[in-house]
Specification:
about 325 residues; mainly alpha; Na+/H+ antiporter like fold; globular
């Protein structure tokens, strides 16, 4: 027999979850409508991304690591190993896939970059903040930091190899290594290792970076969908999305399950493995003169296909 207290708790949990979903999809819808109706979607997206990338996300990275418990990163080697697996499975599977296809180098380069680098921040960050809280952010930060290192090295190699823009290799590597969240994460790790403590007042002020970043990141996702919404070449997009968002998670799930990781980092890694290709892949495609329109289509299709999966996030986090 279910007690009244348990029933009230269950109803409250359902209501809270419904509110979180409403906020998640609501802010994405706001961004989408801004892009489609205002006529200034690209400008708004550009300014919002600058605010997020150059200020809010770096602040959030530093605040999170400096307010984390020392035992948060004890599973670091296992976490990084799985992150590398999530990234490297993509190009390996794509290589096998392309052996049976005849595409030009511009398309191949886009396929390799999009299947390798997923959305490590703009979707998982707000989801973790909404359903777990800041306790889960160190894993998101580690994932992002590892990805930026791979993007600066492996990603630049892919772009230079298939785009033929060898002269742009050093520039794009420099841009990736000077990516503000990347620098902020390194600074935060150094401060964390020397046991630096944020003063109470500053910590309180910086704590607001979490909710602000959450909702603005969701608006940015909506803006991106609204700007790039196009279903041309959807078949090519599905070739990449099928590997990125279906085969890779399917292969990684058992590894995570038997890795011995505790529930929280394991759940966040599963969530990261489900993410669509990153918006940064479009930037990379443009930088190396690859087919950036195809990259934009892949990112949009992958993001749209992910949205229904978000309903299962509460089950993932228990």
């Amino acid at each position: 027999m279910v007690s009244g207290k348990t029933r009230v708790f269950s109803i409250q949990t359902i209501v809270d979850t419904a509110i979180q979903f409403g906020l998640f999809y609501g802010f994405i819808l706001i961004g989408y409508l801004l892009a489609r109706l205002s006529g200034k979607g690209k400008e708004t997206s550009q300014y919002l991304n600058l605010l997020l990338i150059n200020l809010l996300i770096p602040i959030l990275f530093i605040y999170t690591l400096l307010t984390s418990a020392p035992d948060t990163l004890t599973e670091l080697p296992t976490i990084i190993t799985i992150i590398l697996l999530i990234h490297l499975l993509g190009p390996a599977l794509m290589y096998l896939h392309l052996k049976r296809r005849d595409y030009d180098n511009s398309t191949k380069g886009v396929f390799y970059i999009c299947v390798t680098f997923n959305n490590a921040l703009f979707i998982p960050l707000p989801l973790v903040l909404m359903f777990v809280g800041t306790i889960g952010l160190p894993v998101v930060i580690i994932f992002s930091l590892t990805q930026m290192t791979l993007l600066a090295t492996l990603g630049s190699f892919m772009g230079a190899m298939f785009g033929g823009e060898n002269g742009g290799y050093s520039k794009i590597t420099k841009d990736a290594l000077t990516f503000p969240p990347f620098i902020a994460a390194i600074i935060a790790v150094i401060l964390f290792l020397v046991n630096f403590q944020l003063p109470g007042d500053i910590a309180y002020i910086l704590s607001f970076s979490g909710p602000i970043t959450t909702y603005l990141a969701l608006i940015a996702v909506g803006l991106g969908i609204g700007i790039r919404f196009s279903l041309v070449e959807i078949r090519a997009a599905l070739e990449v999305v099928g590997i990125r968002q279906f085969l890779i998670p399917l292969m990684v799930f058992p590894v995570i399950a038997f890795s011995g990781l505790s529930q929280l980092p394991a759940s966040i890694l599963v969530l990261e493995a489900l993410m669509p290709p990153a918006v940064l892949t479009v930037v990379y495609a443009k930088s190396f003169k690859l087919d950036s329109e195809k990259a934009a289509t892949i990112v949009t299709v992958g993001t749209l296909l992910l949205l229904p999966v978000i309903f299962f996030v509460p089950f993932l986090f228990g």
